[in-house]
Every structure is written in structure tokens, then in C-alpha cells.
Design goal:
The complex is a heterodimer of chains A (183) and B (269). Chain A is mainly alpha-helical and 183 residues long. Chain A is built from seven helices and no strands. Chain B folds into four domains: 18-57, no CATH class; 61-101; 112-168, Thrombin, subunit H (Beta Barrel); 175-257, Beta Barrel (Thrombin, subunit H). Chain B has helices spanning 4-21, 25-36, 40-59, 63-101, and strands spanning 109-119, 127-130, 143-146, 151-158, 163-167, 175-179, 186-191, 199-206, 216-219, 231-241, 246-253, 262-268. In chain B, the strands form two sheets. Chain B has a six-stranded antiparallel beta barrel. The mean pLDDT of chain B is 89. The chains are: A mainly alpha (183), B alpha+beta (269). Chains A and B meet through helix 1, helix 4, helix 5, helix 6 and helix 7 of A and helix 1, helix 2, helix 3 and strand 1 of B.
Amino acid sequence: MSIPHTLLLLLAAFGAVFVQAAFPLGRMLFGAQIDLLPSLVVYAALSGGVSAMCLVSIWGGLLFDSLSANPLGTSLPPLLLAGTVILLNRELILRDQTFAQAVLGVCSNAVFGVFSLLILLHLGTRPTLGWGTVWELLVTALGGGVLSPLTFQLFGWLERHLTHGVVVQTSFRNDREIRRGRG
Amino acid sequence: MLKRPHYIALGLAALLTLMVLNLPARATERLKLAIGSIFVPLFGLTSTAQQLPSSVGNLLITRKELLRQNEVLRIENQQLKLQEARAENIERENARLRQIVGWQHQRGWKMKLGRVILREPANWWRSVQIDLGAREGISNNLPVITIDGFLVGRTASVGLTRCQVLLVGDPNCRVSARVENEARDTGVIGPAGPLEREFVELGYLSRNAILKPGQDIVTSGLGGIFPKDVPVGKIVDSHQIDFGFQTLARVRLGANLNSLEEVWVLLEK
């Protein structure tokens, strides 16, 4: 993955955290805010390499925790875990299929939610928990399932419009033309 | 399969994560504020976006309507001026009587208006960020109320230009509160549940507490952070818990925490 592409991903992580904190649309509509970072990590893990995935997870996680009441670093292990599992199986994943992207979005969001809560409990903090937490995790996971394919489409569109297209070369060459006939 | 450098990169990321998680509390707090300050240039964008619907609405108001509103506000302003003068007289009289009886002076508060710029991105906490910070004299554990005077929460994690407000109902913002009944029962306000954002639970109430729906809940002044008699909300229902040893009441908050835009931070005079 090129440096501009990685920078674009980091910028997207910054924007995603800001949008999540500034516009609580998911909370108003469904009672739970939908996380945008796990979908980005899915994209980084499938389209980029290890470095892109690690950078997006660390940068995004730190930004997320800085605006949240989470202890700093809480979001890093869940994001890294989701990204690493995808990286280890990336050769088996049909990354261009919308269904595969959606399933990965659901799984990564669910992992992010559950592991963040486990880490918070392990750190001795007392987050608001109850039966409503199941609903929150469900909404977050399903939201991730919708957002993940959209992330792929957005970055695909950006890539098509911001980078040079691959030039398709034909095997025909003028200087190698075989002349047939009697002359 | 991944190559060796990839495993090294993953190991380094894991190491960094462990280091961040094990930093001392003070260092974590500073680092958190430093990282959060990256968003400062975007704070203006948030407030602009929040004001946009009302700005568009203002363009559509007719001159006649504006004149009518102006007249209503003028009358209200005169009434408030009269009330203020009367309140000042009462305050002076109160201070004089306190001096005569030898009671301690009540703590005075001055107020600073703050604008809500960001909300909590995680689902399991209740907090907002406001545009007041150490530069405006804000420090940790200052009470925050709505424009109408209802309790919002307390300040925490104060940066130079912004601070976090832990809202009532957050597990880290417990408030000692009193029921406005004859017995003046006191309890502690805590979170009600993940999806019940407009409710809180008033626990540790006496098992003999006589609670009725609609009774007012105000701060008790105990605990040292929140001043006395700040309205919190009204009782919705109550039931006995812990085998009938204590009563738990569900309270509907007076402040609409989901649509907070401006808040007052109370600073000690």
C-alpha cells in the first residue's frame, strides 16, 4: 500500500472519530452509537498491509479514547485483534464480495464492542451495563455490517478518482509484425 | 501467511498498546488531553453545524413576528429586573440575619456559559465536551447545570480550551440527592440502565421512605461538589430492594441530556 493511501486511511480514521463524537445520529435513531473505526480497520487489513492496519488501529483507537471517558488505550487491543485475525486469513476472504465485507463488518464491530467492555471491566472501571448493552452491541454490529461495504465503495471511488488508472497493454507491437506473402 | 517483518510490526503494536495501558494515571490524562487537542480546529465546525438549522429558521421569521417577540421579551425583561432587585434585597437581608445569628456564610457561585461541542463516542459512558477549559478558570469537579437550572453533571479532564463533563447517570458521577417530602429522605443518584438515558436511579433510600410519583428530587449538598437544592428531576416510581432493606426510586431527569447545547458551569466566588 502506498504512503498517500495510508495517509488517506489515517485521515479517514480522524474524520470517523470526529463524526462519531459530533453527530450522535445512531444514538438518536436506534439508542446506540454506531462505531465507524472497525469498518476502517477491516478495509485497512484487506486492502493494505500489516503496517496500514496497525497504524489505523493505533491512531484511530487513541483518537477515540481521547474523546471518550475510556481509559487511554482501551480501544487499541480490540481493533488490533480484529485486524490481525482478518490479516491472517486474508487469502481465504473474498474481499470484493459485498456479503463478505458485510460479515466482516458485523464480526469486527461485535469484537470491538465486547472486547472493549472486557478490557474496561479488567481495568476496574464500571461502565453502564445491563440488558440494554445487548441491544447496543447488536445495533453496533449490524451498523458495522452496513458501513463496511460502504467503506470499501467509498475508498474504491476515491482510488478511481485520485490515482492513475492501470494502463492495459496489448500484446500487439508494430515492430514485431510478421509479414506473410511472397514479397 | 505473514512474513517475519509483519510479525515484528504486530509485536511492536502490541507492545505499544501495553505501554499505553500501563502508563501512570497522570501521564495518561495529559496524553489524552494532548491527543484530543488535535480536534480543536474542528470544534468550530460542530457549533456551526448545530446552529445551522436555527439560522435557517431565523431567516424565515417575518418582521411582524420579530416585533411581537421583541415586545414579549421587553415585558419579560422588566419583570425579571424587578425580581432581581427583590432577590438582591432578600440576599442582603439573609446575609445580615446570618451574621446576627452567627451562621456560616453560604458559598457563592459565579457562572460561566459553555457550549457543548462533542458527545461521548462510546455507548457505555455518559459525557460531553464543552468549550470551557483551564483558560477560563475551569477545574475538576465543578457542578454543571442547564440554562433552566437543572443538574447536568460535573467537570472532569480539564484541558486548556475544553473540558469533559460527566453527566448525571454516568457511573463515575454519583450525586447525593434529597426527596422533597416531609421526611426529606436522602439517597445517592446512579445510572438507571444503558438505554434509559432520561432516567437515573436514586438508591440507598430508607426502607420507610414515603415516595410518590411526581415528588421533586434536589441535590442534598452532601459530598462537597454539588451545591444544595439544585433540581435534578421527579420521581417516576419506586420499589424495595435487598430484601426490603432499602428503597430504590426511578427518577426522570429535568435536564434533557440528549439535546444539551449550552450549560452553566458553577465556579466558586
